[in-house]
Amino acid sequence: MTTAVNRARTRLDVVEMEPQGFNDKGTMELVEVKVNAQSEDLNAILSDASPSIHDRDPKRVNKSLKVIFEDVIAEPPSVRSFDNVWLWSHAVFEVSRLWIYRFISFLLAVPVSLAAGILFAVLSCLHIWLIMPSVQLLLINMHWVQTVWGSILNILISPLFTSVGKSCGRITVHLAKDEDK
User: Fold this and answer.
1) How far is CA 18 from CA 28, 51, 88, 99, in A?
2) The model's pTM
3) CB burial string 46-77: b at 16+ within 10 A, e below
4) How far apart are CA 179 and CA 85, in angstroms?
5) What is the mean pLDDT of the chain?
6) What confidence tens digit (pLDDT) does each residue in 100-147 have?
């Protein structure tokens, strides 16, 4: 018995939105980018463990840091500066925010990442090799305490509170206002 293996060619079209730049209104314009992948390339795409260059906050951790010029500086309609002053201040704000962030992240990103990696590695090691085995050892050896405590609750405390509940369950309270003048 012979079986023929039919390998179908699979094509994957992925549409991503990439930032193009700011338009006249100062808002970011997005451009649609299509990526085509054949079935052989699919495994390479799906198994890529490197972080995404385009979406660096996939879990939206830093939603509060999406600051634009209009969030910081706004002129009411009653007082306005010259249009060129507004445009230049907008440009200076965006450029300085971007380049100062890049400079500070260039200086701090690697050392802070190293420190965070060491901290999480130590915490993970402590959790895996010290805390969880201790908790499991405690739970295994304290099974008799759980049995005794359950028996005490069922024999002494549960009937006491059941009888108090039944005794007090028939109590009714009526509120009335005295109308003294």
Assistant:
1) 10, 16, 26, 20
2) 0.44
3) eeeeeeeeeeeeeeeeeeeeeeebeeeeeeee
4) 74
5) 78
6) 999 999 999 999 999 999 999 999 999 999 999 999 999 888 888 989
